[in-house]
Write a structure and sequence with these properties.
Elements (H helix, E strand, L loop, with lengths): L2 E9 H11 L16 H11 L2 E18 L10 H8 L3 H8 L3 H39 L3 E12 L4 E6 L1 H11 L6 E5 L6 H9 L3 E8 L11 H6 L2 E6 H8 L17
Parallel strand pairs: 1-2, 1-5, 2-3, 5-6, 6-7
Antiparallel strand pairs: 3-4
Helix pairs in contact: 3-5, 6-7
Length: about 260
């Protein structure tokens, strides 16, 4: 069935994790996304698979802010009591402090504070790098727009990112807000939280399509998309080998065999 125009709604973290899982042998996840990807070709291929005629725009949803925990580190440098309270919230810090003599604890706590501040600065720079990467995609490829909303937490003790907040709400809101401009809504996500918005869009006469990726062995990449797939009008699948064409990873040069030994 051929429909008219399509808009693509991309759950940014879901897509990134899918690419990391599919191509962990081809690129370093620290790079955020593969650097040479033909995003125009990729999104247009999804539109073709969905049976639409043209792509109006790909809306790509990512976090706008990063929230650090503990927060307000700078004010702790002059308040030893509050610093101790903050460090007491981390199990590893409690263990490390308990192993020190009382006279050593203040100096250790101050050094720990400096370490946390350094981690915060590094993560801010990394987050700014992600935004610059996103802006580069917008500038280089047609009809791709990053929609930033909400925040993600970062634990400075464990150096781990938490869950995004409000990004999925922004995607669901836009899915309904933009109903008047598209005939087909294509969702790149496995999040069942989008089910109510998808159902509402269908009720207003829109065709809704979800995207799944197939691994090298042809199995569906796990992503919790079952309920979303059940709600959308249909699911399109893109195989690893087809997606690989758009990634444009550098071709590894074949090993050059050593020259034969010289004749005696």
């Amino acid at each position: 069935m051929t429909a008219g125009s399509a808009c693509i709604f991309v759950d940014g973290e879901n897509l990134r994790h899918s690419l990391v899982e599919l191509f962990k042998q081809e690129f370093d996840p620290a790079d955020y996304l593969p650097k040479r990807t033909d995003w125009t070709g990729f999104f247009d291929a999804l539109v073709q698979l969905a049976g639409a005629i043209s792509r109006l725009r790909a809306y790509w949803y990512v976090v706008e802010h990063i929230d650090f925990w503990p927060w307000g580190l700078a004010r702790l440098s002059s308040d030893a009591v509050k610093l101790q309270r903050v460090l007491a919230q981390d199990k590893k810090c409690v263990q490390d402090l308990a192993a020190l003599a009382p006279a050593q604890r203040e100096g250790w706590a101050h050094q720990k504070l400096l370490d946390l501040i350094t981690r915060e600065r590094r993560m801010k720079n990394r987050f700014d790098g992600w935004k610059a990467f996103q802006d580069g995609i917008t500038n280089r490829f047609d009809a791709i727009e990053f929609r930033r909303a909400g925040a993600i937490t970062y634990n400075l003790f464990t150096q781990q990112l938490g869950r995004e907040k409000a990004v999925d709400v922004k995607l669901a809101t836009d899915l309904l807000e933009f109903r008047s401009i598209y005939d087909v809504g294509i969702i790149v996500s496995g999040d069942q939280d989008y089910v109510p918005a998808v159902q509402a869009a269908k009720d207003s006469g829109k065709q809704m399509v979800n995207v799944s990726f197939l691994k090298r062995d042809g199995q569906v990449l796990p992503g919790g998309a079952r309920r979303l797939n059940q709600t959308t009008d249909r699911t399109i699948e893109m195989h690893y080998s087809d997606l690989l064409k758009f990634m444009r990873f550098p071709v590894q040069a074949a090993a050059v065999p050593p020259p034969p030994p010289a004749a005696p």
